[in-house]
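Form 7-S
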Amino acid sequence: MSSQPERPVLLTGWGRTAPTAARVVRPRTAGEVARALADAGPRGVLARGLGRSYGDAAQAAGGTVLDCTGLTGPIRLDADRGEVTVPAGVSFDRLIAHLLARGHFVPVTPGTRQVTVGGAIAADVHGKNHHADSSLGAHVRSLTLATPAGRARVLTPSAPGEDGDLFRATLGGMGLTGVITEATLAVLPVETSYMRVDTDRTESLDATLDLMSRTDADYRYTVCWVDLLARGSAMGRGVLTRAEHAVPRDLPPALRRDPLRHRPGGAPAAPPRVPPGLLNSWTVGAFNTVYRNAAPRRRRGQAQPLAGFFHPLDAVRGWNRLYGPRGLVQYQFVVPLRAEDALAGIMEGLSRAGAPSFLTVLKRLGEGTGGHLSFPRPGWTLAVDLPADLPGLGRMLRRFDERLLAAGGRLYLAKDGRADAETVHAMYPGLPAWRGIRERADPDGVLVSDMARRLRLL
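Output:
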């Protein structure tokens, strides 16, 4: 394990807001993780992966942050059992490349490959197939958890008693139950590295929700980009894409010669400095119009590279810098399936405010994993990226929080950096049970984060 730097390092989430300083150490083995937990100072310890949580979930002001990207090593695929065992610091980028070369794919992927396996489990990430396959936690066969008590615990979903409780508390537990050092995941056999994509343009929110409700069951993957700046009867119009894994006969002849070829290539970087206000209602409105008009009204069976379908933003390194020096806030929530009025009300409020979001994504979620703090539940989820310096943003989002509470909705902790404790406690009724399990795993309160302090999770 590398020595600690002389001075603390400033850390932020992907939104680049609310930086705090912590000592950063870089363990490379499970033993080094255990020693770091044993040596925790009064401000505690927290694991961090590739820093893709948007808010303050992977920060620990005044404490020690374990950069777990060094927890790498061999990836062990057991094709007969349909599972892969992987060190927690391995990125989805590397894992997907490894699996595709061997005719397999991850069971769930978020919207970026630049997350670690450990971080993805800690956030219980979901993807475009949640309505069909739930979130990542549903596919974890086992995980190894280093706890402050000084012993590694191998946890499985079927474990009885305390170990089973700790397994479920770790899914979506945001790294506050222990440090994941290894995991075994179910994998999906595939024949190509392409998707067979169907696309439809929709003209209104009602049309979008209706089409998704009628057709989601016919596809494993579905997602809708929404033009948030459209108003009136066009509010909620979008581009709906649905997909299945392509087989060789779905591909043009030239691609059939190497159907598992996966070469995402080097991504260009966003400018290191972007002036404030680049993304505003005018520029984003123009982008939205061009993007939507470029999409076909109706297209069936397009062969699309897997990376382009699942991870389009990975094509630009550091795209979060486009929001300027003040950073961005992602507001992601879920409301129950019968609470479409709440969804429409929030979208209408964003539209009236001229909220400049070029990335507004709507999905339908299915059953959750049972993780006490896991975000997904059956319903509609909307994710909106907004400039952090948008005038009146805080007041507007607090009004939305109140509407979510009234509708039985909740916010996604991996995206949050601004909600208050009372709101989140009301949204997560499993919090008291989770807290009891966590206290048994970490009775001295060694594991802590800025988010945990802000939301009084501990």
